[in-house]
Amino acid sequence: MATNQGSDQGNEQGKSAGSSQKSEGQASQKGSGKRGFAAMSEAQQREIASKGGQAAHQKGTAHEFDSEEARRAGQKGGEAVSRNREHMAEIGRKGGESRQSANRDGDGRSKSAQKANRQGKDEDDA
């Protein structure tokens, strides 16, 4: 009987050790693991979202932008972006650099002037 008690105690210790390991593993996953929709692959998310969109259209509650509404939304976005002076300055700087490099490549002439010049030469040759 003493041997049974010893083996029972060993089993209980093994069980408690296993359960404590599980809880430690679960604790580490609990804070950082994704759950639900976020845990699904991108393809699964798209499929579910697509079904939701189809259901909304069938029900008649789906929203579709008309051209005027889309224009207003784009205008709002443009206004929000243009408030960021640093961002706008960076865009302007890149545009200026691009123009400079294009002018260097074309001997200081604009592309339209180069094209007109080429067309004039073609006519002279004919």
UniProtKB/TrEMBL annotation:
Short name of one Pfam family: KGG
Compositionally biased region (Polar residues): 1-31
Region (Disordered): 1-126
InterPro entries for the chain: Stress-induced_KGG_rpt (IPR019626), Stress/Virulence-Domain (IPR052590)
Highest taxon above the source species: Bacteria
Basic and acidic residues: bias regions: 61-72, 82-110
Name of the protein in question: Stress-induced acidophilic repeat motif-containing protein
